[in-house]
Amino acid sequence: MNAETHPNVAFLDQAPEASSLSSRRGIAILALLSMVQFMDILDASILNIALPSIKNDLGFSQQSLQWVVNGYILTYGGFLLLGGRMADLLGRRLVMVTGLIVFAGASLTGGLAHSESLLIGARFAQGLGAAMLSPAALSSLTSTFRSTRDRNTALGTWAAVSGIGGAAGVLFGGLLTEGPGWRWVLFVNVPFSAVALVGALALLKKEPMRFRFASFDAFGALLVTGGMLLLVHALVKAPDVGWGATRTIVELSIAGVTLVAFVANELRVANPLVPLSILRVRGVGIADATQLVAVAGFLPMFFFLTLYMQTVLHYSPIQTGVAYLPLTVGFIVAASISSQLFARIGTKPVILVGAVVAAGGLYWLSRIPVDGTYVSDILPGLVVSSIGLGGVFTGVTTAANAGVGEDKAGLAAGLLNTGTQLGGALGLAILSALATARTTSMLHAGNDLAVAATHGYQRALLAGAVLVLASTAIAILAPNNRQSEPAADEEPALDLAA
User: Which of 220, 347, 361, 411 holds its CA 20 to 30 A away from the CA of 275?
Assistant: First the structure.
């Protein structure tokens, strides 16, 4: 076979050498996809600071209030795998545009809501839109930027944006809540979604649809979505109802059985919704597992550190948000440097060193005192952990997409994002239980609330450091990817340029 008789061979040989980022269109596409991911991550945390204002304005009960946050997390995590596969089957642009419309509509509805049920319903719909957006955006990125240099740069940008999204959510949430009001925390998504919608229609080309109703694995879709929804629900509710509660055990058991049934179904059917052959791509499963464990240790940091700054050090919401700014800078710098190292030393050393550095930063934060100061007790740990985690997330994102075929790019993105969501929910559930047990013990010993609460936060942050360090035990099993181009035997890249 030669290039003359089989033009796709020539295409594959030449594509990695061309630079998409040397053009304005390539840069615009990267900016568009990064903005979409930023919105997704931002909305998982931006409403946290606004919760007291929402409670007072709409008369929420304490039990119902948690669903303003958890409703988004539940549908986001529950529908990610389905959203990723739909991006492969229906086309990434179509799924992204649909997700943007759902996301913007839900944001507008939530901002106008005057009842508990309407706001919570809007947050559920927001999560559904985000579950379509994130995997469609990441798979569009990996399909657009084909050369090693371009793809590493693009994935480094993606990882940096993902890392700073949580920190930016706290900052923007504080600024908007204390400024125009909590409703603008939701309204702000509408203009951003409108810009992203125009960008998607202008920059991303409509793709051929691979979907066929006759061969659609409806039972598999039902099993994976139902199992994921129940699993995430059990994890986010466990801190409230207890890990040993009958409800938690039953929900986790049913979720486990449902997901096992899903795997059995995918192995049996001719056209599976989620082809498990993707796990045969070297390093994909290990990269996803590394992400899950690392996120379980890192993401809860925002929760406990925010509580420490506001309840112990008495920071205002805006002061708390500004305190996280160095974290965003650290992510950007680390992701930029890491993405340039992959071609020289590979992803594995970057992930391993990054995890050790990040664990050190979290350990520093775990030593926060009752009378702590920002400069000596918070800032150093934030900077160190952000530099380490910037390397981890960039390396894992690159490794989880390396060698994945064009027809499974959305699925790979869905798997990685699912690991992130499960890791965050699982980590917060476990670390919250540890913090609560420690605080309760300190209160029973006669300590005041500030001392007891600080000891609880210390315990949770220390456990987070251990989890991040433990992710190295998984990462060490991964292959060392020095380039992140797609598999050579896949079909040619879809031309996303209009």
Answer: 347
Which of 434, 430, 417 is CA-nearest to residue 73? 417
**What is the DSSP track for 306-366?**
HHIIIIIS---HHHHHHHTHHHHHHHHHHHHHHHHHHHHH-HHHHHHHHHHHHHHHHHHHT
**Other beta carbons within 10 Å of 465:** 23
- pLDDT band for position 214 (50/70/90)? low
Residues 354, 151: Cα–Cα separation, whole Å: 20
Rounded Cα distance between 465 and 212, Å, is 46
CB-CB contact of 472 with 356 (8 Å): yes
How much is the average pLDDT of 67-83?
85
pLDDT of 61 over the 90 cut: no
- Chain-centroid distance, C-alpha 332: 16
Alpha helices in 179-324 (DSSP H): 183-187, 189-203, 218-241, 246-268, 284-298, 300-307, 317-323
Cβ distance 391 to 350 under 8 Å? yes
- The owner of tokens 């947050």 is 123
